[in-house]
Write a structure and sequence with these properties.
- The protein is mostly beta strands.
- The chain has a domain of about 220 residues.
- The strands form twelve sheets. It has a nine-stranded antiparallel sheet with strand order 22-23-24-25-26-32-31-30-29, covered by helices on one side. Strands 9, 10, 12, 13 and 14 form a five-stranded antiparallel sheet that branches.
- A hairpin with a 5-residue loop joins β29 and β30.
- α3 packs across α4.
- It is globular.
- About 5% of the residues have low confidence.
């Protein structure tokens, strides 16, 4: 779909009608036109001041270059005037019989009574440098980092297959110590909360507080359960690949990113970048590759292969995990009918007397949008027995047509092979690439195809998805679900730009945040999916938000229509001022709330005059520093300001804001503040730099801004030289009234 400038249309139902996105009008950091008594219609807070001119209301283009000459970035969570925040829990705090993990992400608040509830929390990954630098200060104990880093330096590629080391090898034990602590810091948590009389929130440390860590069962024998066809693979004897000899039991959960809630009081936790810790590829029977395929490694942004030394089976990670927070004996169930891929998004649609629908995205470059439809219908949406509906149904992948229509393709054995072609996708360095299940099925894994002719031969060799896998029909179905992303490529499901969240409105409308369409080593989006309105050849690096409506608003429908409703980027190019949309939520008034996920390494990186380097224009990725830190936004979907975006919060240094979970009365907003200090670690003596940025007014005139940028982070303590700690916060008004 090719969109022309100013043709981003919002359709929010026939009752609302059609509204064009607003053209540019403006605000600035030193002369904000908003006051608490003069707010835009539909907005209940004074927008926070960002470092670049926005297309909302206030300062005219001629005055912007003066108003934005300077800007100070804060190492703090910046919230609107009249608001405050409290830290509920930070990495290392006690939680149940374990601790609060690292890089808290999705949050699910399940009320258990008036002013109290259970908060489900995801812990996604380890920020290598910041975690290592801060570990001793937070945990008051040491790990053998120096010894292991020295040993890795002597290995080819600075990585090692620790699983293959002898059990009495001291290096294996050292790697095991580090990997275990890292896996403890990943997974899922449940914590009990209450609202106090003064409006603040605090933990109550009840008997249901607990952790589901990445190493849970090796510590206490409490295994995570599994349902669906992949169970046949887990229990199968004489596997073609690696067998952990645990049958259908799983050691735990890790790489937990986004999530969602069910009407019956459970929440879903999405295992995303599991491929960083265990092998992603599988054999033709769905069994895992050897643990040595993902060796142990320490990087600045993450630790890799931490499942290696424990021999974790790769095919048991990358699933959607359901947790009943109120049951202290529940340590999660992985529902394999929902597919194994880099799960980021999940939204559950429950309509009485209709089948259950679950929408999820695969957060990778070239990832797909998926939909699970249960075999049976829902009767009472609040019935806890509805969890059984996840155990039988069908998984589909979305096929988007350029005309704004689409269909759902089933991922089952008799689905025809019709692969996505390399020429159809945006390629890194101009060459399209599509990964497909390895045509050498005895070896397994994947092959990256860059030639349409080679794909044509592939299509001649394999006629259906079932031809790619071995076993009974149930076993083939299980293997397809285990290999879902690559099977979806083989079936012709549309490749997209990192679908990072899905959110269903009350009327069944689905919203999807696509974070970035720039291609990478995993692949890229289909060329005819959504094209940049300025230059169709340039991917939408800053992301966009999609609206999808099932035909007849029926969750069982296999056809739909879709539309782009919000574009990231600079206002002078019709962007709304944000970059890389991620988590979404919808409030009771129908406003869409969103947080951004810009790569940490790009935050506040300077942009020289002329926006060129060595005589060449800077890429969109190199320009991303103009947006500053990651942010939270409110986008009205109705009324006079429908389609405008209003900044609500700014994260501390090097962070990503996650969660976006309102309390039932919307007087509190829970946020996860993830990976503070990820890029520059601990801030030393309040160090900062003054950097220059070539900004543009909302009419496209360039000017230079001097920006004061802290180096590293001390958040949340905000005390000099203290370690940055990922934390969960609650944002509220000082008067404790509704945020919305």
């Amino acid at each position: 779909m090719k969109l022309q400038r100013r043709e981003f249309i919002l359709f929010f139902g026939a009752a609302v009608g059609t509204t064009l996105l607003r053209g540019p009008a403006f605000s600035g950091p030193s002369q904000s036109p908003f006051t608490l008594a003069n707010l835009p219609e539909g907005i209940s807070f004074k927008p926070v001041d960002l470092p670049l001119p926005l297309g909302i209301t206030g300062i005219g283009p001629k005055e912007q270059s003066q108003a934005y000459q300077t800007y100070e970035v804060k190492d703090d969570l910046v919230v609107p005037e009249g608001f405050t925040y409290e830290v509920i829990a930070s990495w290392g705090d006690p939680l149940g019989d374990s601790r609060v993990g690292y890089n808290n992400d999705y949050l699910a608040f399940i009320p258990t009574g008036k002013n109290e509830g259970l908060l489900g929390v995801n812990f996604e990954y380890i920020s290598g440098k910041a975690w290592i630098d801060s570990y001793q200060m937070v945990m008051a104990k040491d790990l053998p980092f120096a010894e292991v880093i020295k040993a890795l330096a002597a290995q080819e590629g600075n990585k090692i297959n620790a699983y293959a080391l002898a059990d009495n090898d001291p290096l294996k034990e050292q790697i095991k110590l580090i990997s275990k602590e890292a896996l403890i810091d990943l997974g899922i948590g449940v914590m009990s909360l209450k609202r106090n009389d003064d409006g603040t929130w605090s933990r109550t440390n009840s008997g249901v507080d607990r952790r589901i860590t990445g190493i849970l069962a090796l510590d206490n024998g409490k295994y995570t359960k599994t349902t669906g066809p992949a169970v046949e693979i887990f229990n199968k004897q004489n596997k073609l690949g690696y067998d952990d000899n645990l049958g259908d039991k799983v050691v735990g959960s890790f790489s937990n990113c986004a999530g969602g809630k069910t009407p019956w009081g459970t929440f879903l936790s999405a295992e995303e970048n599991f491929q960083d810790q265990v092998p992603e590829g599988v054999k033709a029977d769905g069994s895992s590759l050897d643990p040595g395929e993902k060796p142990f490694e320490i990087g600045d942004e993450d630790l890799y292969g931490i499942g290696n030394v424990f021999g974790l089976a790769g095919n048991k990670y990358g699933w959607m995990v359901e947790v009943d927070p109120a049951n202290p004996d529940d340590y999660g169930t992985k529902h394999t009918w929902l597919g194994r891929f880099r799960h980021e998004a999940v939204a559950v649609r429950v309509v009485p007397n209709r089948k259950l629908a679950v929408y999820s995205g695969c957060d990778r470059r070239g990832g797909h949008l998926y939909k699970f439809v249960s075999a049976e219908a829902v009767h009472n949406p609040q019935d806890p027995q509805n969890s059984r509906l996840f155990s039988n149904g069908m998984l589909y992948g979305a096929k988007f047509n350029p005309d704004g229509t689409g269909k759902w393709i089933p991922l089952k054995p008799d689905t025809p092979i019709d692969p996505v072609l390399p020429s159809q996708v945006v390629g890194k360095d101009g060459e399209g690439m599509v990964p497909l299940p390895n045509p050498d099925r005895t070896t397994g894994g994947i092959t990256r195809f860059t030639s349409d002719a080679e794909v044509a031969l592939y299509k001649e060799k394999f006629k259906t998805l079932g031809d790619l896998y071995v076993g009974t029909e149930t076993e083939k179905q299980g293997a397809i679900l285990i290999d879902a992303h690559f099977a979806a490529n083989a079936a012709g499901v549309t490749c997209t730009g990192r679908p990072e969240d899905t959110e269903v409105a009350a009327d069944g409308t689905l919203f999807v945040a696509f974070t970035s369409e720039t291609p990478g080593s995993d692949g890229g989006p289909n060329k005819d999916f959504l094209q940049n309105p300025q230059d169709p050849k340039v991917p939408l690096e800053y992301g966009w938000i999609l609206r999808l409506v099932e035909d007849n608003q029926n969750p069982e429908s296999l056809t739909f229509t879709w539309e782009a409703i919000a574009l990231g980027g600079e206002p002078y190019l019709n962007g709304l001022g944000f970059s890389n949309p991620d988590n979404l939520t919808i409030d009771s008034k129908g406003n869409l709330w969103m947080v951004t996920d810009m790569s940490t390494s790009s935050h506040n990186q300077p942009v020289p005059a002329g926006r060129t380097k060595d005589g060449k224009p800077l890429s969109q990725e190199k320009l991303r520093g103009i947006f500053g830190n990651n942010t939270a936004w409110c986008i009205p979907l109705t009324g006079a300001n429908a389609g405008n975006a209003y900044p609500f919060a700014i994260g501390p240094m090097d962070t990503e804001l996650c969660g976006l979970e309102f309390s039932p009365d919307e007087t509190a907003l829970f946020l996860g503040v993830q990976h503070p200090g990820e890029n520059n670690s601990i801030r030393k003596d309040f160090a900062f730099e003054t950097r220059e940025f070539a900004l543009k007014t909302t009419e496209g005139t360039e000017f230079i801004q001097k920006r004061e940028v802290p180096i590293g982070s001390n958040w949340p303590s905000k005390q000099a030289n203290q370690p940055p700690r990922p934390s969960i916060v609650v944002v509220r008004r000082l008067d404790n009234q509704s945020i919305t």
